[in-house]
Design brief:
Length: 276
């Protein structure tokens, strides 16, 4: 009886082990494209992720992961950087001059993408707080966000064509901007751009109508009348954790993320100092 029980456990564990094995054999087109792009790669392991074939490998003594489709089209490669010295000078300088300069650098990834901007993702830590900082190669902070487990699939180049109405709006409202990422979720289209040396996110609805544009700002960029309104409010003793400027069809405002102990609140104040 015990022997039978043992074999049942053994079989179950074996089944679980096989179920977790995501490795696949790439088709000839993807394999050929990979070998052509990375002829000296070693220890290649392939997986299937949604509509992509991904391969983990070592190249130039660096751990990398590349995304291909079934036709062998390359889309993106993530490279794990082991030292800040591997960052472009502009990125290192921007980080040194940022509010995160004294934070501990926990991880660095470089995202090279087909016909789109290369992005550097720096994971920084201070105490129990962790942030992901997204920089362009020329040192512009595209965005900062609470650290999250991400395989960067949303940063894959968008195979679909950006609707003309959206592209025309961006060209008219944000001339000479660079599109970094386009994401579709919850019935909205979110486009990340670099404009005037600043990362911005533009949000459209499913009908391609503009909803808002928002981006991080420093306290020194906020009008004095707005800061005075905050100091005269019941939230004067709260600490400012983050400030974003929102531009919308009906008007602009600042979104303050405030905290005091375990209390957190979002407060909107328009440029005239009116609390919303």
């Amino acid at each position: 009886m015990r022997l039978h029980y043992f074999w049942l456990i053994f079989a179950f564990l074996g089944f679980c082990s096989c179920d977790k094995d995501d490795s696949v054999q790439p088709n000839p087109k993807a394999q050929q494209a990979f070998e052509s792009k990375y002829p000296y790669a070693t220890k290649a392991e392939w997986e299937k992720k949604n509509n992509y074939l991904t391969v983990d490998f070592i190249d130039e003594q660096q751990n990398k992961e590349a995304w291909f489709d079934a036709d062998g089209q390359w889309y993106m490669t993530k490279t794990e950087l082991t030292s800040p010295t591997q960052l472009p000078d502009a990125v290192r300088q921007a980080l040194a001059n940022s509010e995160y300069a004294q934070w501990y650098i926990d991880d660095i990834d470089r995202l090279e993408r087909y016909q789109e901007e290369t992005v550097y993702v720096i994971e920084v830590k201070k105490g129990q707080v962790e942030y992901d900082l997204f920089y362009s190669s020329d040192g512009i902070l595209i965005k900062s966000q609470i650290d999250q487990e991400d395989d960067y699939e949303t940063y894959l180049p968008d195979a679909s064509v950006l609707p003309d109405a959206i592209r025309q709006f961006i060209e008219a409202q944000y001339p000479d901007s660079r599109i970094i990422e386009t994401e579709r979720e919850h019935g909205q289209i979110e486009v990340e751009i670099i404009h005037n040396n600043r990362g911005k996110e533009i949000v459209f609805n499913s009908s391609h109508q503009w909803l808002n544009t928002h981006y991080d700002v420093r306290r020194t960029e906020v009008e004095e009348v707005v800061l005075t309104a905050l100091q005269n409010s019941i939230y004067a003793t709260y600490q400012i954790d983050d400030i974003e400027r929102y531009e919308t069809p009906t008007g602009n405002y600042y979104l303050f993320e405030l905290e005091k102990g375990n209390q957190e609140i979002d407060l909107k104040i328009d440029p005239t100092g009116q609390l919303l």
